[in-house]
Structure formats: structure tokens, C-alpha cells
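Pilot study result, target chain (183 residues):
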Amino acid sequence: MANAQEKKQLDIPISIAYYGHYITHNGIKIGTQYDWKEWEKTKVRKRGNLNKQRKIFASPQIGLYRHPKNHTGLLFNVDIGYQRSRGQRKTYTAYALGLGYMTQINSGITYVYKSDDSLEEKKWASRGYFMPTLNTEIGRRINHKVGWYSKLSLGSKLNYNTGKSLEFFLELGAKINIKNKKG
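Predicted structure:
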């Protein structure tokens, strides 16, 4: 048992994904996952034992997407969630709440009013938003080093100028376990 725990501590999962804002505005997202608590239950059956694994995790991530001729979005977030898998299929589902900060950098030139009511050109104008999200994810381990996943996120930019803004994101990516050299 101790050996399995030591092995899990040495693996560092890195996720790299296509990150689509409203699916079509493409980008990239990179992250990792830290497991806070894991537990396993085995159910004895006639056809063989069924293993059920569950975990609570935290997943810090950074994402970047481009909305052509409008803006570029940069997102820093942390998902706190629950993941479960069962059987030898190595397939899992996860549900998470995310807390993030999104910066939208305007494309082109933005005009800003000065105190004397004149207009001034401002390049690289941006706004920042606090953005909580609800996430659902499915994935499958191919082997102990590599797996794939698909994740849907629904969030809202708070302090948005119209009051409410619903944001939809799709991630399609790979999770790669990298060995920690400290162990």
C-alpha cells in the first residue's frame, strides 16, 4: 500500500488541450492536477471484482484563446472537483467548480475619453473579470502515462458591463504523467 502511495506522489499529470471559447474561437489550455483525497472500494461479483475509485482534486490551469477581430482572452483558474472511475475500463467522469480571472485584450485600437472630452487612441486596452465556472469532464487512460479527456465549462463574467454574460468553453486534450525526479 505504501509503495502505491509513493508511486502516485511521483506522478505529475500535465494536461494540454484545445481550448474553444464558444467552441469555434480556438486556443490552448495547460494545467495540472493535485489529488487531495482518494479512496477505493471493491465490490465482489460473480463475473469478477468491480473496483470503484473516487478522488477530490484541485486543478490549476492557464488558458489562452483568440476571438478574431475582437479580442484575445487569457484565463487563470483553479477547479475544485470530484472524480470517479470504475472497473478496468480506465474511464472516468469528473464534476468541478472553477474560480478564475479572465483578461480580455481588445484587438486593434480602442478609443478612450480623456478628462477634457477628447478621444485618445489606446493600444492593448483590456478588461479583467472574475469568472466562476461549472465543469463536467469525461476521460480515459490509455496507459499509465497518457490519457485523453473532454471537458465542458459554463461560466459567467462578473462585473461585466451588461450585467450578465454567459461563457461556454470546450476542451479536448491529453493528460500526460511526468515523473517527479525528487522521488
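One observation from the pilot: DSSP finds one helix and eleven strands in the chain. A full batch analysis is planned for the follow-on phase.
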